[in-house]
Amino acid sequence: MWSPLAGRRASRLRRPSRDTVASAGGAAVFSCSLGIAAVALPLLALRSGYTAVEVGVLAAVSAVAQMTTRLLLGAVMRLVGDWVLVLVAGAALCLSNGLVAVSAALVPFVLAALLQGVARGCFWTGSQAHVVRGDRPAVGAIATMNFVGSIGLLTGPVLAGLLAEHSPRTALGVASAVAAAAIVPALALDRLPPFQPPAGRSPTRIWRRSGVDVGCWASVSAGAWWSLLSSYVPVALNAARQPASTIGALVSVASAASVLGSVLVARVRGRWVMRSFVLGTVATGAALGLVVLVADAWWAAAALLAVSGLGAGALQTVGPAIATDSVHPEERGDAVATTGTFRAAALFTAPLAVAGAIAVIPLAAAMGLAGALITASAFVVHGRSSGLGDSADG
């Protein structure tokens, strides 16, 4: 028999925990600040006299900092709780955006790029490692965090575009304040203990294990997509004389599609795990490689950015989930850090490679080559990992 007491108990059971709200809310706020910076930083650089090549180099500096940070985080999470990384991330991103809001000189720009890389590495490694420690499947936990967190990636670029119509520095000042607000939910996270991997298992070559290797390749493609979306896509749209508000809206279209892609793969099982990886990689690479060719037509650019976003959203969810489901629960911190390191490597190499390529070929050709390489990786990895979907079902 139903009673008011039973109803209240059921309501409490359905109510998200403080930790769940803090994880999701922190992701939303942090991502909003990052989304603002993704549009405002390259626009400020271009308006301050930096060349397209220099914009790519600054993006690569940030990626180097993120990659170096992630290389260390597996060991760090065996010493401190993952919540500490989330806290540090908010403070670092606040300082990063604040520096360039004050000065667009070279030294502040380089320091801002370094701090943004540290912030991104700490936040995504710490937050993903935190949410996969529960009882629910890793793909669902990561998809939920990505979905809520991507609200910030949707609103951030639009807000940046509107503010940048007045001044990119104003946009970055707002981004700094938003990043500071991300510290608050970090303080509300559960204080989970550091990871304690089983004795006799070395994390140094975890990337070579079956499942973890697929997660690493997925992260490479997703990282390349994000790095080019936040560097050379705005450059191409700006060269096509699209206004700042339109550029911000188009980047948000890609981010919105990545949210949908993450949601669509939240419940994949069995063979669809590997199929999602292949389809996501092909969509990401093919669409991204063509977007520069249609940059002067906003509707065509929006369509291609949406397709690329769907693929990247699937990859950034499926990749870490495959990796963490393939290892011991106490090794999940190392698995998340490893896939994140590969993502950071792509964040470094993709814009740097395009920066080098456009010195000898047009930007459209350079982006087309990058997209082709992303697409080709799907078939290489699929050939090496057939049968993974069956083992990943549980």
Put the structure in a nutshell:
This protein has 394 residues and is an all-alpha fold. 78% of the residues lie in helices and 0% in strands. α12 runs antiparallel to α13.
Mind explaining what this structure looks like?
By secondary structure, this protein is mainly alpha-helical. It has one domain: MFS general substrate transporter like domains (Growth Hormone, Chain: A, Up-down Bundle). The chain contains 16 helices and no strands. Helix 4 runs antiparallel to helix 7 (168-181), helix 11 runs parallel beside helix 13 and helix 12 (271-290) runs antiparallel to helix 15. The longest helix is centred in the first third of the chain and has 30 residues, at 18-47.
CATH superfamily: MFS general substrate transporter like domains
Cα-atom Rg, whole angstroms? 20 Å
Assembly context of the chains:
single chain
Name of the level-1 CATH class: Mainly Alpha
Detail the poorly predicted runs.
1-13, 389-394
Rounded mean pLDDT score? 83
Mind telling me which CATH architecture this is? Up-down Bundle
Termini distance?
36 Å
What sort of overall outline do the alpha carbons produce when their principal axes are compared? Answer: globular
Alpha-beta classification? mainly alpha
What is the CATH topology assignment?
A: Growth Hormone, Chain: A
**DSSP summary: helix tally:** 16
Major beta sheet summary: none
